[in-house]
Every structure is written in structure tokens, then in C-alpha cells.
Design brief:
The protein contains three helices and four strands. The protein is an alpha+beta fold. The chain has one domain: Rossmann fold, CATH 3.40.50.300. The chain has a four-stranded antiparallel beta sheet, with helices on one face. The chain is globular and about 40 Å long. Keywords: Antibiotic resistance, ATP-binding, Nucleotide-binding, Transport. It is a peripheral membrane protein. InterPro entries: ABC_transporter-like_ATP-bd, ABC_transporter_ATP-binding, P-loop_NTPase. It is found in: Cell membrane.
Length: 110
């Protein structure tokens, strides 16, 4: 059996009455390259934000790197690295702001 880097079953997310993710299933084997493509508004960013523990799902089961999102989000944070489309912030924020951003991403207190 192949180990999964990402395992998602029945992932759901809504913002009020707007359903963004409706029962998404996803299996990404370890050691593979995976791309998430789709039109604007398809839920790609929401899915990545959930997988990286930045926002909570509305339902479903999520495992990343063998860690369960519901019971071990810190394990997921320790196992992954995330960068955005426009990740270069040099010159836009100070060193202190960059440190605070990283602390926020890891849900650390000051």
C-alpha cells in the first residue's frame, strides 16, 4: 500500500450560505509532485489554507504528512512549508513584521 502525503475525505467549507468545498476527496502519494488547478472561485485557495492549518474546515477528514488536522495541527505545521504566489516580501515588511508573520502562521504567542 502506498503511503499518502495528503489524504482528504469529504472536505467541506462554507462561508455563510456560500458553499466553497462540497465533499472533496483527495489522495496524494508520498514522493509525488501534485498540482491543484482550476478556475477562479473553484476553492483552490480555501483547500490549501485548510491543508496548511490556516483556516478550519467545515467538515471532513484531513491528514497531511500522517498528521490528523483535527487532533494534531501542530504536527502538520512542523511537517510542511508553504509559500504563496507572491511570496517575496523583502522591502515590503520589516524584519520584525516578518518574524511576527511566521509566529502567526505557527500560532505562537508573542
Amino acid at each position: 500500500m502506498t503511503n499518502l502525503a495528503i489524504a482528504v475525505n469529504g472536505l467541506r467549507k462554507s462561508y455563510g450560505d456560500k458553499v466553497v468545498l462540497d465533499g472533496v476527496d483527495l489522495a496524494v502519494p508520498e514522493g509525488t509532485i501534485f498540482s491543484l488547478l482550476g478556475p477562479n472561485g473553484a476553492g483552490k485557495t480555501t483547500a490549501v489554507q485548510i491543508l496548511s492549518t490556516l483556516i478550519s474546515p467545515g467538515g471532513g477528514e484531513v491528514r497531511v504528512g500522517g498528521h490528523d488536522l483535527a487532533t494534531d495541527p501542530q504536527g502538520i505545521r512542523a511537517a510542511i512549508g508553504v509559500t504563496g504566489q507572491f511570496s517575496a516580501v523583502d522591502g515590503l515588511i520589516t524584519g520584525e513584521e516578518n518574524m511576527l508573520l511566521m509566529a502567526d502562521l505557527h500560532h505562537l504567542t508573542r
